[in-house]
Amino acid sequence: MLIGDDDPGHVVGGWSGHVRLKVELSTQLQQFSWACRRAIFSRSDDSGGDTEAAGPFESSQVQSVKEPHISLTKAFYLHEHQINEFVREIENCVGGMGCFAVGFGQLSTYLAANKRRGFVAVDVNYGMESVRRVLDRVDCVMEKFGQRKFFRAPLLHVSLLSVDLEADAVGEMGKVGATLGTAMDEEIALLAAVRIDQVECVFGNRKFSISLDAE
Fold first, then answer.
1. I want to staple 142 with a disulfide (CB 3.0 to 4.6 A). Which of 147, 189, 207, 213 is the partner?
2. Prediction pTM value
3. 10 Å Cβ neighbour count for 166?
4. Tens digits of residue pLDDT in 58-82
5. Which residues, at least 6 apart from 175, have a Cβ–Cβ distance to it below 8 Å?
6. How far apart are CA 89 and CA 83, in angstroms?
7. What is the pLDDT of residue 53?
8. Domain extent listing, the chain
9. Which domain of life does the UniProt lineage start with (predicted)?
10. Distances (CA, A) of 142 to 1, 42, 69, 73, 126
11. What is the C-alpha separation between 6 and 113, in angstroms, rounded?
């Protein structure tokens, strides 16, 4: 499944932006991520590191996602002078919204639009309406700044592993998904819901965190 779409193009003097919901990497999610990583390889050590790759992937190609999240925007660019105003608008639009929980129903694989990177992710199957309420408000801000809205029917997910792809390995992501989907069914069913309490606006190496109201 492709995610993202063509980059709108770099804006001279602009910053690449991304709005997302922060997902805390719990011990359970981290262990699940390691288990997925181990399943991709023929042999692995107990800490989640891999010693020999199975199929087209080298160990260095498969990495854990350091900051798991649920994306709320496509790729976009803003000029430096627009960033603070944009963040204030996001803060205002989610003001009064409370924290909520999301749960996971299945494991999927995704491809970036440029097909240079694949992702192993868990799909959100609980709390989707809460995510969409935040998304609708973020979309309004995106329109106000002349940016594209998110997908009409987004596939809400949390990526746990990132896979650097060679041109001839793109088709292998589908095989990985089929293998992991079977191998990890029981583990997915045991994943606990996670609390969503922050919206993050990321521009390059700058991150702005906006807290949702406590329940």
1. 147
2. 0.87
3. 12
4. 888 899 999 999 999 998 999 999 9
5. 55
6. 10
7. 45
8. 2-211
9. Eukaryota
10. 25, 44, 19, 8, 25
11. 6
Query: What pLDDT does residue 162 have?
Result: 94
Give me the torsion for CA of 31, 50, 171, 108, rounded to 10°.
0
In three-state secondary structure terms, 78 is strand
Q: What are phi and psi of 76, to 5 degrees?
A: -155, 165
d(CA 91, CA 189): 34
Nearest to 210 by CA among 119, 103, 49, 93: 93
Q: Does domain 2-211 have CATH number 3.30.70.260?
A: no
108-146 pLDDT, tens digit per residue, is 999 888 888 899 999 999 999 999 999 999 999 999 999
Amino acid identity at 200? E
Burial of 214 (0-12, 13-18, 19+ CB in 10 A): exposed
